[in-house]
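Hi support team,

I'm filing this because I wasn't sure whether my run with adenosine-5'-diphosphate finished correctly. The job status page said complete, but I'd like someone to confirm that the output block is well-formed before I use it downstream. Pasting the exact inputs I used:
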Amino acid sequence: AFRNEDGGWTCPKLPLPNNEVPQKFAHIHLLLEDWSNKVDGVVPVPRKNLIIYHDDITMTKKLGEGAFGEVWKGTLKIDGILKDCAVKKIKGQVKRAETDAFFHEAKIMSKFDHECIVKYYGQCTLISPLMAVMELASGGTVRGLLRSKKTTPIENLVHFTVCIARGMEHISSKRVIHRDLAARNCLIGDNLMGENIGFRIAPIRWLAPETLTKGIFNEKTDVWSYGVVIWEIFTACAHHPLYPKSIKDAQVDIKEIDKPHKFPKGTGPPKEILSTFESCIRSKPENRPTFRALLVELAKNVEKWKKGQQQSKRKATGNNTATQK
Ligand code: ADP
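And here is everything the job wrote out:
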């Protein structure tokens, strides 16, 4: 992203390295729960060519607004079975660039097959409006959940951190760069509906230093954004990521980026996850881990954390029993 004359930011169109999939404004949603084992029925298997008939879709409730148009909750009829789904409907009069972007997003989404990534069921393209049909994440966005009044147990926060790393590892293994990883793009497949965040802001606070200065996007810049998501999760999205709120987006520069990023008092992840956060936001990309390496390290550390939790629970109950005696 570079500064415009009016002080805003634009992302330059840069040539992409070999075999990296260019991604215009596709949104890949990470899903933070495994739905494939849900008991309520069959997970729809998309038709081979991914074409879905408009007649097989019923839309019931508007969920949000995206760059392409509206996102609706609906049902999809597959081989006589009705299954909940989310439908992204491209808005009215479409320009060629928008249809291109729509098909581009469809192509990218259909590459993924992972329990932590929203499943792509197919697209309705035979008549207008163009629609993309995908797995419904009825729990809303992670940002919505964390900003709501409910307190999220630390176990869930750690679970989110691991799920996002797993989804990102899958995305990077397909040589796709996300480019817009943030808590507002992580959805929850549960029944806790959070507030809907459908806005698009220039994600300055989520971008790596080399993206801000040179417009580079690659796995290591996604890893930086993942570090920012850890920040969001463990500050309940209540603090502006990395830089204090007093620093406006337009003031985020290299001087700010290079300062050490400390969690505000009373917030922050367990120490076992803090090291992952710190490795993600190293200023030199070559010093940041890949998603693969990060996931291996994180999984080990989370196991350590869980053992520690169990031990302190045991100690606490032991003490209680001792006091009772
Ligand atoms: P775009 O990428 O076109 O800007 P998004 O994909 O971010 O739009 O969708 C806009 C909003 O719609 C999201 O913030 C979310 O609230 C909702 N949404 C998108 N996909 C789903 C889904 N699969 N399940 C539930 N809600 C969704």
